[in-house]
Structure formats: structure tokens, C-alpha cells
Amino acid sequence: MRRPRALFVLNSTGFGGLEIVLLDWLAGCDHDKMEILVACGNADFSRRLEAMGIPARVIPIEFPFKLPVMTALKRWVKLFRQTRPDRIIFLEASPPPDFGIQAVAPAVWFTGGRTYFFQSLAPEPFANKSSKRHLGIIPGLGLYWRKTGWWLRLRNRITARTLTASQAVGNKMVEYFGYPADAFTVAYHGVDTETFAPSPEARRRWREENNIPQNATVLVSHGRLAAVKQPMRLLKAFEAAARERDDVYLVLTAYGELTGGITEAAKTIHGSDRVRLVGFQRDRAALLQAADIYVLASDNEGFPIAVLEAMSTGLLCTASNVAGPNEIITDGANGLLMEPNMDAAIAGVLRAVRLAPGEHNRLAAAARQSILERCEIRGSVRNSLGMFGVAAR
Fold first, then answer.
1. For residue 93, what pLDDT is reported?
2. Quick one: pLDDT at residue 130?
3. 356 within 8 A of 6, measured Cβ to Cβ
4. CA–CA gap between residue 9 and residue 29 (Å, rounded)
5. According to the model, what pLDDT value does residue 97 have?
6. pTM of full prediction above 0.85
7. What is the Cα–Cα distance from 58 to 8, expressed in whole angstroms?
8. CA distance 11 to 60
9. Mean pLDDT of the chain
10. Alpha carbon distances (Å) from 48 to 41, 149, 200, 315
């Protein structure tokens, strides 16, 4: 008799918060009690999974997601027939949905309804919920918007449960798409507070290796360079701080679709000699341990793992006042919040840099304490896996 089998389905090509969440879940599964499979077309994720030694089997998704409905339906049916999962968990970023009826209907059929969703990012509002006027007179019905809401409500009825990364993600699904208010469960993710902890020795060593003075004030931001992350705000905010003080440095992980443009822009700003573009960092803890201030200037977030890691490491965090960060940070209590625009980002970073040492240390200590109390990784992983019916260690 075979063990129960859970299949996680991931639609992504890069590596960011959603992929980190899934790796943490897979590491927390009880692989002796349940066979764990991951269906994805993300070679980078597969390599990281293998490097971590997690005994989950990867099923490559070798077809594009944007296929005609009937063609895609046949591909999904074939995949589920081959894997024969007892339960399926789809991991999705913001709507419009990555997984349509062609994926969800066969998933529900094969699992007898034991199909789940994890929604990681708050959806963007539609600028206009109606279509253009026909002949300049008759307003359109806005079906392009309505069909997303119809599908999400139907999906909720036929699947077992939807988990969201934060309360704000669920609230926006209700607000924008008419999703039932009681149809989602918030599952805050966590962080390994033992790995992501202050370390004076790691701080000294990393700065020495990257030619940063030990007494410098280091701003850091790590993650994929994408438009929603607004990395130009970070560069301009650093430039303003660098004009005020010659001991301010910036460390930025440069990978992702905007890497080329940000690399060129970094060469032209004041203080460019104090910018360190370090690429993807496998040891994120060492990177954060070397810094003083974490900056997140995004337009949109879910429940940013990067901020959890920085707060756990004891950094002062200044982040956009958007869904997710404002559920973690209370301005002036355990960090700083700023509005998601260029002027506010510059002002927010200057505010952080100008803090007196005593106030900086108070906020940094409060940040770590809040993570210890609310977001310890083991408890959060067990909680999420339990909601999916997946055996946890």
C-alpha cells in the first residue's frame, strides 16, 4: 500500500518569496508519512530543491500555461493521471489567475475535491471596471474584469480551501473580485530566527570581503529586480543619503529582469563608488548580518519574506506602506513605513539614516522581538501544512 501523495503545483520562472515559502513547506513535510511531489517548469527552483537534499520528486511541466483551453485540459489530465495525487496544492501569485478551469477541474476530479490554493500576492485594482463605449455612446459590460471575479468565486466553491499570505491579500480579493469574505484563511509565513539573527563576526567578515568600512551605515535590499519592486526608488533614496553622509553604503542583489538597467543607473548616481551590486546570494543571512537598514520600496507585496528575514536579523526596516509590510511593521514601534512613491521613498530612507543611535537600536530590537513572537518558521510551516492536510514533521 503506497503512502498518501501530495502534489504542489508552482507556476514561476524566477526565484523569490513564493519559491522560498514552498521550499520551507517541503523541508517541513514528513516525507516518511507522505510522498511529496512538485510540478513546475522552474529549473532554478528544482536545482535549489536538490541542493537542499529535500526528498521531494520534481515533475517537470513541459508545456506553456497559456494554451487553448482544451489543449491545456488534456495536458493537465495527463499530468494528474501520471502522478495520481491524493491532494493538490496550487501556488499562485496575484490574479488574473495563473491556473484556470483547465487545470483546476481535473485537479478537483482526481483528488475528490482535496484541491487547495495559496495566494501569495495582493491583486492590483483595475483602473476601469467597464469596457470602452461602443460608438462612443453605449458603455461596455466590463466582461474582461467580471470573468476573473466569476472564476475566482467558482473556484472557491469547487476547491477545499484558499490560503492567503496576509489579511490584506484576502481583503483585496474580496474588494476587487467579489470573493466571499469567509472564503480564505490567512497563513502567515515565518522565518528561521536562529539562522537570521545578529552576528558581529559575520558582519565584520562580510564587510571586509566586500570592501565596506566596519563603521559604515549600510543600506540593503535583497530579492529579484522587478518593476513592482521599484529599485530605482532605492537608488535615488540612497543617492540622497549619500549626499548627506559619506559613510552610507548600499548593497543590492542584482538579478532579475531589470538587472541591466539598474546596473547602468547605479554607475551614474552620486556615491556610485559606495554601491555594491552583489548578485543572487545563497547565504541571505550573511548579507543581512552585514547591514544596518533594510529598505523595501515596492508598489505591491503579499507578506514579504525578505522583510521578515531582515527584522529577525535585527535590522531597522523601512518599507512601503502597502498590503503585507503594514501587517508586519507598525510605524515608529518596530520599524518605519513610507508611502509607495519616489518622494516618500527618499524621505523614508533619509528618516532612517538620520535616526539617533538609541532610537535606531530600539526599533531594531523591537523588530526582532516581533518576529520571535509572531513568525517563527516551524510553527508557521506546521500550521500551513496542516491546513492542506499534508503531514508535517
1. 74
2. 52
3. no
4. 16
5. 66
6. no
7. 10
8. 11
9. 90
10. 13, 35, 28, 26
Measured CA to CA, the distance from residue 368 to residue 25 in angstroms comes to: 22
Interval 344-351 mean pLDDT = 97
Instruction: Spell out the domains of the chain, with CATH numbers in brackets.
Output: 5-190+377-388 (3.40.50.2000), 200-374 (3.40.50.2000)
Q: How far is CA 191 from the centre of its chain?
A: 13
Residue with cell 540593503: 220
Amino acid at 126: F
Strands ordered across the beta sheet of 248-252: 275-277, 248-252, 217-221, 293-296, 316-320, 336-338
Burial (CB count <10 Å: 0-12, 13-18, 19+), residue 242: buried
171 Rama class: left (phi>0) / alpha (psi -120 to 50) / beta = alpha
Express each pLDDT in 30-66 by its tens digit.
Answer: 999 999 999 998 888 888 899 999 999 999 988 877 7
- Name the grid cell of 130: 467597464
Distance CA 167, CA 119 (A): 11
Nearest to 308 by CA among 192, 219, 229: 192
Name the residue with cell 502534489: 7
**Which string of DSSP letters, residue by residue, matches 240-273?**
HHHHH-TTEEEEE---STTHHHHHHHHTTSTTGG
Take residue 168 and report the three cell numbers written for it. 490584506
Tell me: pLDDT of 84 over 60. Answer: yes
> What grid cell was written down for 250?
548600499
